[in-house]
Amino acid sequence: MLTRRHFIQTTTALFSAALAGPSLANNWPTESEMATWDAQVTPPEFDLSTTNPWGLDRRLLPQRVAANDGLVPGDIHVDATARYLYHVEAGGTAMRYGVAIGRDGLYEPGTYTIRRKVEWPHWTPTQNMIAREPGVYSQYANGQEPGPNNALGSRALYLYVGQRDTFLRIHGTPQPWSIGSRASSGCVRMVMPHINALFPNVEIGSMARLYPA
What we know:
Elements: H1 31-41, E1 63-66, E2 76-79, E3 84-88, E4 93-98, E5 101-102, E6 110-119, H2 127-132, H3 134-137, E7 155-161, E8 164-173, E9 182-184, E10 188-191, H4 192-198, E11 207-210
Parallel strand pairs: 2-11, 5-9, 8-10
Antiparallel strand pairs: 1-4, 2-3, 3-4, 6-7, 6-11, 7-8
């Protein structure tokens, strides 16, 4: 069984939705629209490790921490118990971010490959989501267009097993107050400016390991 203690060692800082199916929404934003939205969701004078208008517990703010030996730089590890995502760096460090995970029974631990990444993605709830909570999700059965209120937020990393899309995502959320909790329908949620910082550093083909809660 995967255990978080086998892979990540947290130390003092050295320097810290929903499932989505193929979308039927089809209006892709322009570069100008995306830049406007990025500015809209990013607080003024944003500092990755200290800015906190969302009222998060300070431990959930991004920071650089020590990582155990042997981890592959570029890979992602999600500690579901502590609600941390670690992005492993070269040189024995990792960037750690606070996250929200799936509600009881919806979180799916395992080892995945990131095969797609999208800025300001579309989103469509799965049929299971619509059947489980029709009052919440049926209005988006044909897809939700990109934007600050989209369930996947500003960025999404798409998790696969082999060539199969699992419909699990690591993504931004328009509900930043949920970070640190079990809130989603299975995905890993991040504050939008946090995933915006992570996103350009994640390579297609990287591993994402989600540990049991």
